[in-house]
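[stage:ingest] chain + small molecule (EPZ)
[stage:ingest] validated
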Amino acid sequence: MDKFLIRGGRPLRGRVEISGAKNSALPCLAATLLTAETVTLHNVPYVKDLITQRRLLEDLGATVLTPELRTHKVTAKNIETFEASYELVKTMRASVLALGPLLSRFGKAKVSLPGGCAIGTRPIDLHLKAFEKLGAVVSLESGDVMATAPKGRLQGADIHFDKVTVTGTENVIMAAVLAGGTTTIRNAAREPEIEDLAALLIKMGAKISGAGTDTIRIDGVDELNGAEHSIIPDRIETGTFIVAAAMTDGELEVAKCQPRHLEAVIEQLRKTGVNIENLDETTLKVTRDRAGLKSIDVTTEPHPLFPTDMQAQYMALMTQAEGTSIITETIFENRFMHASELIRLGADISISGNHATVRGASKLTGARIIASDLRASASLVLAGLAADGETTIDRVYHIDRGYETIVRKFRSLGADIERASDQLTDESV
Ligand code: EPZ
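[stage:predict] done
[stage:export] tokens:
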């Protein structure tokens, strides 16, 4: 199993280019199932979850060509099966995004019910209730979700989500684009990834308005065509590198990003003493204020407020800030597992329910730690980069799911980080 070896205490300097957004590329790849024509997606990040999503499309019968590493040309002409297998879903719960398109275009879909993951139970009850409102018959059979449209085609409906759900909103948009009649989604998720998916679908001929707001209207059409689209930059990777610059007291240019997608993150980090300057539309310059970092409370909320996917990285930053900060996690029930690993490095953190109290600034010293989930892994890398001495992070496969060539990017900025494997190999004996 791979691990990272980091020798910390070196300020990061230089320019880093942000990759395409994993959480936009995943629904956009699923959306290619909605047409028999070729859909070309550019700026698809080269990360594990997208390799899994590509395999899912191919298992369903689609053809996926990659003329360039980050370009996927998908033709879902000969779809022979309508089932996302347990093997795939258990490795990546976002495979449930196949439900909406398969149900919409073929009137049937079978997807293994995703298990929970490290950060929470992560049910999909809201997705399924919405499909039923669109006329689908949904049943659970030995761990699989079966959904069929009795009349072969879903019917538009008024959907109100009791809770904001990102992939739930995406699944319903994809189900509704080929339904008969109009669908309105209320209390819809407002993430930039929703807007990006809608932009692709509109290029394919869908009739969608209101994406990015809490009310989305979709007028169903009879079929969709091929299209070409470039995935938006990853706002969470952007936030992660901004924090990296501040934690190592370096100076970074973060390029090919989209600052308006992470306004709440930028605003919060500026309050703590991170200097973030707009060099141009897609480039930020980041340094730490000479006065040092200040402890500021934060609560995670649905977009456009502070995202849960930046909570772990923010906690790492607060260990280096003077004073006490309280971090409140409102989206997932178990998303503080990075805290115990940060404590092993010397942080002073206490957890009570969905509140984490961080007392800083702590001197971090390298140690052996273990990654638990994607964003927790990122926070541990950031802490390792700031710590004195050597930090070893095990189970880094988590980070490979959502950060493209993370070691190469950090090394190009002067970090002393390398990937090592603890697999026994001929060379190791
Ligand atoms: C998406 O997950 C992201 N994943 C997550 O990013 C992100 O943390 C999350 O949105 C919140 O922003 C992708 O986009 C692939 P939700 P999703 O449905 O859609 C509850 C990462 O690090 N809920 O918005 O699964 C749920 O349990 C990942 O890249 C229900 O109760 O999240 C959670 O408490 C991690 N029933 C809350 O709603 C449902 O049917 C928000 O979940 C659906 C969700």
